[in-house]
Amino acid sequence: MTGSTPNGSPHRPDGDRNVIVSQRYRFRAAAHVLSPDCPVLADLMPAEVGPARVLVILDEGLTHAAPWTTERVQQYAEAHGDRLTLAGPIEVVAGGEQTKNDWATYERVVRAIHDGNLCRHSYVLAIGGGAVLDAVGFAAATAHRGVRLVRMPTTTLAQADAGIGVKNGINAFGKKNFLGTFTVPWAVVNDPSLPATLSDREWRCGFSEAVKVALVKDASLFERIESAADSLGQRDEGVARSIIQHSAELHLDHIVDGGDPFELTVARPLDFGHWSAHKLEQMTGFRLRHGEAVAIGVALDSLYSALAGLLAWDDAVRVVDTLKRIGFSLYDDALQNTSDLLDGLDEFREHLGGRLTIAMIDSIGVQRDVHDMDRAVLADAIDRLRGTSLQHL
Ligand SMILES: NC(=O)c1ccc[n+]([C@@H]2O[C@H](COP(=O)([O-])OP(=O)(O)OC[C@H]3O[C@@H](n4cnc5c(N)ncnc54)[C@H](O)[C@@H]3O)[C@@H](O)[C@H]2O)c1
Ligand SMILES: [Zn+2]
């Protein structure tokens, strides 16, 4: 059959059709978003009839470090009562990876969506670190096959990376993100005042993801991070803000313009350094934070890229030096268990489907895919990481 449907989609002779879905992604960066006089959140949650119904989920780590958050959310809702209303009690869920390691948070959120009678035009507002955003996002994406999700990331890592993407998920069968969906969030709001209460260790974590996205997308961001590395190591929040913003924008550009937001092909440039990072998190029982494991994975794959003849050696040294000056430790004893680590490659391939495809870099800011990894070269890269100073490289 030839011809076309009323909306212009062609009928093909083989019966195949294209399903084209266009979704709006609303990204805002604004400080003190929970101040009653700030319109950003209320503007993002319109309702067709009456005030928007909003279920709020808070990360317990945040409410512990910033106990005033719950009251601020309540005051915000009261101040904007003509436009939004809380669709149930504010839920506080466990923070950190544990929230993804079982069903408890997922179940709690879907139950709250049920109890609050949320519909697809209601909103789930998730305020927390990447782990809480992943678990709550999975619940919001599956209840009613999708309730609108507004994410407010509260860690540097979630603002630079995890909160920006279109993925959610929880861990199962010992595998990271085994259950989850690709879902475009209704909106993401980065409030630079929120990470202020993080420990130094958690605060540092965002910058390994910023280095990662810079290495695969934008040499100018890498140069900015390289020259700011000592300041970041001393927790200079002013410097950090603009780096987080730059990283988030690159991530968003990739989602919007990269041509494959739902990872239907095998290429995953934003997973540079992640095949080993995910495995290291598991192998250490999540003793290593995601951002710490990513720092090791990025250093490892930068050294691998250089030893495999792709990347100039001096550039690999710059990457290692920058991560170290930010304060990351780039070696963990778990790396000695190469055979378990290499299982990470198989798990990565299985998670992605199709042929093994690993992101490497040709130069700073320029990514390329490889389809196998040479074990001897990898062992050499691990050996070099073991040294704690550049001289050992
Ligand atoms: N969906 C994606 O695209 C994507 C991308 C990258 C990472 N991730 C996931 O993100 C998770 C890591 O996220 P993360 O680095 O944000 O860490 P996290 O969510 O594990 O949070 C770290 C700790 O900080 C606490 N916390 C959160 N905000 C706080 C605040 N403002 N003050 C004090 N404490 C606070 C949390 O309770 C937790 O204890 C991993 O599960 C990773 O797999 C997802
Ligand atoms: Zn990551």
> Segments where pLDDT lies below 50 for 5+ residues?
none
Order of helices and strands: EHEHHEEHEHEHEEEHHHHHHHEEH
Outline, from the CA principal axes?
globular
The whole-number mean of residue pLDDT values reads 94
Given helix and strand content, the structural type is alpha/beta
What's the CATH architecture of the largest domain?
Answer: Up-down Bundle
In whole angstroms, the N-to-C terminal distance is 64 Å
Please give the domain count. 2
Bound molecules: nicotinamide-adenine-dinucleotide, zinc ion
As for the CATH topology of the largest domain, it is Dehydroquinate synthase-like, alpha domain
Share of residues in strands? 5-15%
Main beta sheet strand tally, sense and closure: 7 strands, parallel
Radius of gyration: 22 Å
Q: What is the CATH superfamily classification of the largest domain?
A: Dehydroquinate synthase-like - alpha domain
CATH class of the largest domain reads Mainly Alpha
The beta-strand count equals 11
- Note the total helix count: 14
Helix content: 40-55%
